[in-house]
Every structure is written in C-alpha cells, then in structure tokens.
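Notebook, p. 212. Picked up where the previous page left off. The plan for this session was modest: take the two constructs that came back from the sequencing core last week, fold each one, and keep the raw output in the notebook itself so nobody has to go hunting through shared drives later. Recording the first one now, exactly as returned: residue sequence, then the structure token string.
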Amino acid sequence: MAVHQPTIAIIGATGYIGGRLVPRLLEAGYNVRCLVRSPEKLENREWAADPKVEIRQSNLEDADLAASALESCQSAFYLVHSMTAAGASYAAQDRRLASEFAAAASKAGLARIIYLGGLGETGPDLSEHLASRREVETALRSTGIPVTVLRAAMIIGSGSASFEILRYLVERLPIMITPKWVSSPSQPIAVRNVIGYLVGVLSTPETIGEVFDIGGSEVLCYRDIMRIMTEELGLRRRWIIPIPILTPRLSSYWIQFITPLSHNIAKPLAEGLKNPVVCREDRITKLIPQQLFSVRESIRAALTKVASHQVETNWSMAGPIPGDPDWAGGALFRDIRQTTINAPASAVFKAVCRLGGGHGWYAADWLWIIRGGMDLAVGGPGLRRGRRDPEALGYGEALDFWRVVGFDRNQRLALRAEMKLPGEAMLEFRIESLNETQCTLHQIALFKPRGLFGLIYWYLVMPFHAIVFGGMLGGLASEALRISAAPLPAPIR
C-alpha cells in the first residue's frame, strides 16, 4: 500500500530561500503547495512542472482566500519579508501580514508553522530589522498554532543579499572606511545548511513549537569575513579602516552606492550589523546533524556557483509585481521599431533574453551606464542588480533596472522600468514568425509621463532614441544571426 506523503505549504516560494527549499522538499518526498501572489513568477522554475507541486494564487491580506489555499496542508513555511516592497514601513507590514496568516492558518486547521527569523540578543539595542523578526514570531503564535523558529545570522550563498554586499564591497573598494561594526562577532551560515535545517525540522517532532539558533561552524567578525572574501576572490589585501563616527545609517547609503542593494534593503541590514549575532545554544545540531560549512567553504561554494552561472535564486527575485499601468487615456509616447531577420524565432528570442547584465544592451552601452549612474544618484537600483543568469530569464526576475513582466517563450518579452522616472515606462519585444527560418522582431518602448516634468523628460531623451533603440534593434538582429549560424552542440554519448 502506497504511503500518503503530507502536503507542505510554502509562503514565499518566489523568494531567495523559498525557491531553494521547494526542490529539496521534493527530493525528501513531500508534496508541496506554493502560495504566491503571481504564479507566473514560478513558470520558469524546473520544479514547477513536478506532479508533486501545486501552485495556488493567494494573498495574505485576504485571510479567507489564504485559509482556503492552506486546506489539507500539514505544515507551512512562512518565508515572507516586506523590506523590498514596503520600504520604511516594512516592520508594520510584516506584523500585519503575519497576524493575517496566523488567522488563516488557524481557520484551515494547520498543524504547524515554520519560520526563519534572525539571531540577535533581545533588548532595547536590538536593531529595527531584528526586532521586526521577533515581532513576526509573536504574531505567528497569536492563534495558538505551534511555531518552529530558526534564527540565523548572515546567510552566505550565491545570490543572497549578504553575499552580494560582501562581494561588491571587496571587489570595488581596495580601501574601506567602515563603522565600528566591522568588529562585531557574527556566526554566518551557508544557505545549504539553512535549507538542511528547514527540511530536517519536518521529520523531527522535538522541534515543534521550539526556537533554535542556527549558525555555521565558526564565529568571526565582519573584518575577518571580508578578508576571507578577498582571498577567495584572488584580490590584493583590502585595507579596512573603522571610524566610530560612521553610523550604520550612513553606512547604508555607502552600501547602496557600491552594491546592487537599494536603500530600502541596505538600511535595515546595515543597522542590524551593530548587533552581535552568535548562537547562544546548539540543540539543533544534535537533533538534525549535518556537516556545517565554515565561512571560507561557504564563500567558495557561492563563488563557484556564480562563476558557473548556476545561481539558483537571487535576492532581487522576491517582492510583488506591480499591476500594469493604465496605458489608456492621457499622453502616451511610443517608440516603435521593427526589422525582419533571417533567423528562426527561437534564435531571436534567445538574443533578446541576453539583454542587460554583463552582456550589455547591444548598442550605446555608455548611454546606459550614464542613465544607470543618474538613477543610482537619486536612489534607484541603477544597473548594479545585473541579472541572475547571463542567458536565462523568467517572469518576475530583475534585469538591471527593469523587471520582467511578460514572458512567452519565442514570442514575447516585456520589461517594466523600476528606475526612478517621472512616469511609467515599458520595453517590449514581440517576435512574429514568418516561416521556419525568418521572423519579424517588433521593439516597442512606451512611456506614460507623470505631470509636466514627465513631458519634459520624454522630449529631453527623445534625441537619443535613434542611438539607443535603433542600435539595440540592429544589435539584436546581428546577435540572432550569430546564434542561428552557430553549430549545434555535439550529442553526449
């Protein structure tokens, strides 16, 4: 007789940890139900087609809808954080969403909630970010459902926010003026160890309703972690000069300027660095034994993934996708271009999907760099976010200062601007197949201005469109021809 495997719900499957947890749960034999606001964001994940995966559209702000989506689930991983979307009000938003979820979980009869929180001593000096994590723990317990809490410090893995901060600071700054938090002790943990604990608690009854500190195999200060990153990157020694008057708040602006992270994320993370984050107990290491990575091993593993373009998830993948702007009514500016290419639709789409990141924009990259610098100066993401993979794209992923909001393989790619703009902007590519070896590429730029400054902005940049958009279209055509002419890889025998 076949044994029925329990269904585990994941709230936050589109995020950094959630996206890595799903395949590990599948490997462990569980059925997985992903509760997401935008199911399209999971379409390009390899595991999304697994028969043991169920994807349901849900909204934590609608307790009845969430309760319905949780029905028949045994346990749920709550992996939601509002830093990216809610900005300065993220703590209040996180409390509210956790309370709504606890009510929905109670209504659905959920047996257990598992939450990944943050390490840090309690008390008045706890940063807002870490204090918010504790408030979420309390909110999740508010309806009496047992909550298992794993509290972690810095999580090191390819694509994690902490790893990206470290890598960019070390790569770009041979001399670093830092606040005194570089001497704060921390116990980082590899992302694979975090996932190991998350999966392990499901089969360990002793963890129900308990709080555990989780960390790697060693405690280091941030200065030493930066030194290890420098050595693993093969760079010359970095000079780190702590200055007591440099506050975490000021540091967040410095992090925003140097790294891909926005101020909304950099500020709470930087303020949290002042708190020692070290495990005060190690009970979980006995309940769920696993090989714990050192900081050097964690960094080396993450760098290997980056170098081989095998980054599974990235910090920028989380967060809501805003609804499409109302393109009807009012002033709407368009730049529409098209060209016929003697290449199949698959080759053209592959060329389009290589836009941005290290590959560039096929023409006038210097103008894109200038525009990215301008955006960065006014608090936007600039071009620093890059992209998760140099070839592959999917719905909801970040691409420099754009976000993928439309993805139909070999037919359409739509990007919505997340740069600071006096209006709404979209860049869309549509591929019309004429026959097996020829198609027409339509390139459409839309801009809906906001007020007088929006109108002025459009007319100021319009003279550059022939260089930027015209050059891009020509570059895409040339790249598609190269892809089409490239020999197919030899079959593996």
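Okay, moving on. Second construct, recorded in the same format:
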Amino acid sequence: MILKNAKIYVDGLLRDGVILIDNKIIKKITYKPKKEVLKELSEQNADNEEFDCENKIILPGIIDIHSHLRDMGQSEKETFLTGTKAAGFSGITTVFNMPNTKPPAITSDQVKKWMDKAKDNIHVNVGFIAGVPKAIDYDEIMKIIDLGVIGFKIYPLSSLNEVDWTDYLNIQKLFHISSRFQIPIFIHPDWPLSPDKRDKILQEYTLENYDTLELHNKLYPCHMEAQYVNFILENYYKIIADNNLKKEEYPIVHFCHISCVESYTLIKKAVKQYNQLKITFEITPHHLLLSNKISLHNENYGKVLPPLRDDEHPQFFYNELQEGNIELIGTDHAPHTIMEKSKPYHDAPSGFPGFETYPLLLLDKVCQYELSLENFVTIASENPAKRFNLKNKGSIKEGYDADLLIVDKVPVYEINPQTFKTKANYSPFEGFKTSIQIWKVFLGGSEISSQPKGRIIKK
C-alpha cells in the first residue's frame, strides 16, 4: 500500500511525503519524491493499493491506556465489537482494557475467557489489565502473568477481590510482585470517605439541594484522592528502602485519572525529586476540559469517578498540558446504558463514553493554536508506547507498525452522540464544537472497516 500526497508527522515536524506499507509495517518513508522515485515505490507496492491523501495529515495511531470495553456480562453497555469499533474509527488503534467485568477478571480462568472472547471481535489492538486474585494468591498471579496481561488494577473504593487496599501490608505485598516481575500496577487513587462524613454530606444535600455534580464531587473529594496518592508513595519509598532495591527492581506504578491539583503536585514532586522512580500517571480529557459547573439536560451524563471537579482543577491541568508537563492521557471510556443513566443520582452508575470525543476535542485545540501538535502526538502516541514497552508503536518510522491516523480540518460542526459507534449514545461533550475530521484510520496497514482485524497485545 502507498499513502501519497500527505503531510507526515515525523520527529516533531510535518513533511510532505509518501509512505510505503508492506506486510503491516512501514517499509519506506520518502519526502517530496520525484517521479522516478514514485515509480520505484509503485514497483515495490505488493498489493498495488494507493491512497491519495489530498494533503491531509498523517499521525501515528493513538494509544489509549485506560478503557472499559465491558462485554463479559455487560454486553448491554458495550461489546468488544462496538467498543473497539468506536475506538478504531476515532483514530485510536490500541487500547488497554480494565478488569471490572462480571465476574471480575481476577482469576487466570476468567482472564483467559476474557481474552478468548476478544479474539476475532476487536477492531483495534487490545491489551488487558487484570484484577488481583483473592488473597493476593501468588500462584494465581503467576498464571495470569503468563497469559500476557499488561498489568494489574486495584480499586480501593470497591475491591474486586475482597482485599483491603487501604491496608499497607496488602500494598507492600503487591509491590513485591511488581518488583519481582516488573509488571505495572494500575491504581484508582481514592481513599474511602467514612460513613459518618458521607451521611453528613447527604444530609446537607437534602437541606441545601446541591446540584448533582457538586454533590458527587463532595462525596469523593479531592483530599481523599490525594490521601491515597500519598499512601501509595509512602509505601513505594518504604519497599525500596526496606529491601534495598536497585533501580531495575523498583515496582512499576501507574496512577489512573488524576483529577486534582493536590494529588498531581504530590506525584510531580516525587518524580522530580527522585527521577529514577517508575511512577506514571494519566489525566483524562474530561478532567482537562470539563468542571462540575457544566450544564447538562441529564446531570448523570456527567457523573464519573473521579468526579468532575471545581473550575480551578481543569484550568490548572489544561495549562499544564499546554506547557508540556502532562505525559499521558487516558479516556477512561466507561459506557453505560441510557436507561441506567436516567435513574436517580444514587442509582445511576459513574462513567461515560470517551473514545469518540477525545481526538476531536484535543486535535481541535491544535487547530486553534492552543496546543502544539508535537505535544498532542507525544502524549497520545509516543509516551504510551515508550512507558508501556509497546514495541514498534507510537511513531511513524520505517520498521514500525503501520498504525496510522489521517485527519483533516473541516468547517466547524457540533459533536452529536447519536452518531457514535459505541452503544452509549450520550456525552457531556454533546454540542461541543470541533473542526477535525477523522478521514481514515489504518491498523497494520489495513483500513479500519466493518471487519475486525485487531489483535491482543501481550506483555
């Protein structure tokens, strides 16, 4: 396959050129080729397929390190087919899938069933994040690691395995495993609010009639996120000191969806002070672009964990994004049915779809000169590939996988969730404007289509 008449993003620059793809790999990149060079490339083009990109921009496929593809007992919310189709047609060519399935993916048998269900049913490449087995069972963890999972995920607010993740001994045990096998631990950072404090907030809600999103923010406050981040950092330092670990033995920790300035500051201070720590974190597009002051016709469409915060937090994060201080973004794509989201606040689940808004919104910021294209590609593609050792992904280079996104600037239009390919046809970003069109997306040199061609990525 040949992609010609394109502006190709390479090493921070857009350059006019041609890409030759062979056997799913970028075989050759040629800039401003002359006629004789184009003829030579055509002779090497095994499938004789050519696309005239009409001066559109080719970017590396986006890597989303945080999603919930559902299925496995939750197919009414999403399936592997619908979720990965939504990702693929949005320019996201690799996703990491989280383990809160039904039943949860906390045993080797369940993880294998999970992966088997995905085979031949995914439009993009999928890496699997497992839950931790009950009692942090070492033998079962070994079996799960052997299946090739990317890492393990813990939820202190709602444990998948009856393990108390506020007990430092359990965290220490998990860090030992991460250290020994060099496997990442994905952490949902939030310290549980005491029942008394929760009841007090709910009583105030009945008296003062908070908005739904304001109430949600009060029930899962910023200081509890920061408290859990601090708890993890303290135990991280402790295991290194107590065991005299070398750098190559440090546990690998990834904080999911950081949403508050205080917790962000704690992490940044730690990695700046000790630059050898294997600690990363992500910010979601909604914690960059939305606050709990947003006006929605159904406020539950904005109900998410962690909650949308007060204005100062997204304003701070967006500034950090512009300055190049944020390393990773994850959508936390978490679809639910409209029926579930139409229930009263206490019964409606947290989460909303994120695949189909993320590229449109952030690339539009690039078009508005509010975000550099280099910054976007770095956080969306390059850094995820580097941080999670995804070989030959995240960049447009000869020898790399031909996972590519072609975008164009078009007249401004409004985002309409009714056009989404996910099952969750709603969004707090409904009506937001963008000037970005996703023209074509290629996975291993094959255009994303109705035929699923993704594969499972294994560590």
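Notes on construct two before I forget. Residues 222-243 form the longest helix (22 residues).
Flagging for discussion at group meeting.
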